[in-house]
Request: fold
Amino acid sequence: MWLLDVNLPTALAGLLLGYDITAETTAGRGWRELTNGALAQAASREGFRVLLTRDRRFGASAGSMLEALPALAIVIVMLPQVREAAYLSAFEAAWHRQPIEPVPGAIIEWP
Reply:
């Protein structure tokens, strides 16, 4: 199961479902106010295996947590911020070129 950080469009969960990936949002979980490290801990504790974010500083603030959360992969989505429909289209195009391949216990940048 994947978790979408608050800075990603909620409609991305539906797009991922088309790739047979179940995803939830931090807002849907009531985790909007959690800091990066606390969010990573909550996600791992609740069984999420991948956390997607646009926050390029996520690694600096939560990277040290990954030693304690070896099953969690953090993916920093490097697509430019645009309106939701354009973002989803860009995400889908990038996915078709190279799907996300999460690495447990690591932070990766995609695409």
